[in-house]
User: Fold this.
Amino acid sequence: MQSKTEGQARSTNGPAQLPQTIDTADAMRNPGMELDMDWVLSARANRSAIERRAASLPGRRSVKKDYQAAWLARAISCIDLTTLAGDDTEGRVRRLCAKARQPVRADLLEAMGLPDLTTGAVCVYHDMVATAHDALQGSGIPVAAVSTGFPAGLSPFHLRVAEIGESVKAGAEEIDIVITRRHVLQGNWQALYDEMKAFRAACGEAHVKAILATGELGTLQNVARASLVCMMAGADFIKTSTGKESVNATLPVSLVMIRAIRDYHQRTGIHVGYKPAGGISKAKDALVYLSLIKEELGDRWLRPDLFRFGASSLLGDIERQLEHHVTGAYSAAWRHAAS
Assistant:
């Protein structure tokens, strides 16, 4: 999956292999474009072929030892470490931010030559944005806020737009918005486009991730079309789920969405990011998603500015696997709690 130089966790360049931002010309934000209905309506999804391809992924790619450790370190750098619970407190969020700053025990990071490894972001509700922003000062780790009536997205439209503005003012650098699912289910692509454009405008300089809530969209074809419409309206990322649906991130849905991203890039030259969220809790699952991204989109997307995991428990299992890599022994899962 990678050359030896790229695959080894230890390197003379150390943490420079895992940057949180990319200073390249192709890192420009997605400016969007006019709604192209012909393109949207031409989008199709061959369910049987997609499911067959997705089912083959876990058994087709395997990385071991140093290579696996390097891939797991990359996965950590792409995690949006998340807490979205009704009983969140400032103390819990500060502990989560401390974990984001040092996601793995210091001795393990030193042993792998990655002492400055951090997660990609910390994701919280609006009420905790200011706390997270304060706790992450000087770390370079952005705060992401879920917004627009998350998770259902059914509050009055003007309040959803205002919520984005409030989170940006509080210090959020990324906004995870939820779309109105009925626009997709009714095929009202103009309404979805207009909604997404308004959310994008309200974000200002903050990057916007469009949550499609794919488990509630009915068909893979709807997922493909909704992905295109949100990108046309200026989404910087498209994201599978809120994590609150009965079905969250899956490999078939991911394949549909990243192929829409590939199509958009081929036609416009713009890179749009991808974020699977919900249900990804094991290190081995993270490796499958990374291999899917590499095969379908290429190495450029294996960076935190274009790929994120929405997860709360994934980090604990990865840390456990990295401890085994360094020490040769597994520790109890409770020793790697995220907060």
About this structure: The beta strands are 79-82, 121-124, 143-146, 174-178, 207-211, 237-239, 273-275, 309-311. DSSP finds 14 helices and eight strands in the chain. The CA atoms of residues 171 and 187 lie 35 Å apart. The two ends are 32 Å apart (CA to CA).
